[in-house]
């Protein structure tokens, strides 16, 4: 007789989890994690997502706030249980016209 399967990841963190690919990944990944931290700017959508699985923890955050993300990382790791998988499924858009785009 075998017991419950061991989670693939101890603690994972998905940034940009409130909609789209990030949300779909969170729902797919949750059963494979002991703890799944989900972050996004949309606190309401994030809270609704976190209710989908008992091991999800919602932590609203804005990826453009570097100090805020660093502080959140410290709070997530404060229990001594480090994050072993991070997925960033968010982005920042800066509009530019042709000729103004600089890849350097």
Question: Could you describe the 3D structure shown?
Answer:
With 104 residues, the protein is an alpha/beta fold. A 4-stranded parallel beta sheet has the order 3-2-1-4. α2 links the parallel β2 and β3. It starts with 8 loop residues before the first strand and ends in a 16-residue tail after the last strand. The model has no long low-confidence stretch (mean pLDDT 89).
List the topology elements.
Blueprint: E1 9-15, H1 20-29, E2 33-39, H2 43-50, E3 56-58, H3 66-77, E4 85-88
Parallel strand pairs: 1-2, 1-4, 2-3
User: Biggest β-sheet, characterized?
Assistant: 4 strands, parallel
Instruction: Count helical runs.
Output: 3
* Strand coverage percent: 15-25%
Low-pLDDT runs of 5+ residues are none
Assign an overall shape: elongated
Q: How would you write the strand order of the largest sheet?
A: 3-2-1-4
Average pLDDT = 89
List keywords for this structure.
20% strand; 4-stranded parallel sheet; 3 helices; alpha/beta; 104 residues
In short:
This protein has 104 residues and is an alpha/beta fold. Helices cover 29% and strands 20% of the residues.
């Amino acid at each position: 007789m075998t017991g419950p399967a061991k989670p693939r990841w101890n603690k994972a963190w998905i940034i940009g989890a409130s909609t789209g690919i990030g949300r779909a990944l969170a729902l797919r990944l949750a059963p494979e994690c002991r703890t799944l931290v989900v972050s996004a700017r949309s606190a309401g959508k994030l809270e609704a997502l976190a209710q989908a699985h008992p091991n999800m923890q919602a932590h609203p955050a804005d990826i453009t706030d570097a100090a805020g993300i660093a502080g959140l990382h410290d709070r997530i790791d404060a229990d001594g249980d480090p994050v072993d998988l991070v997925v960033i499924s968010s982005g920042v858009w800066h509009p530019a016209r042709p000729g103004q785009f600089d890849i350097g």
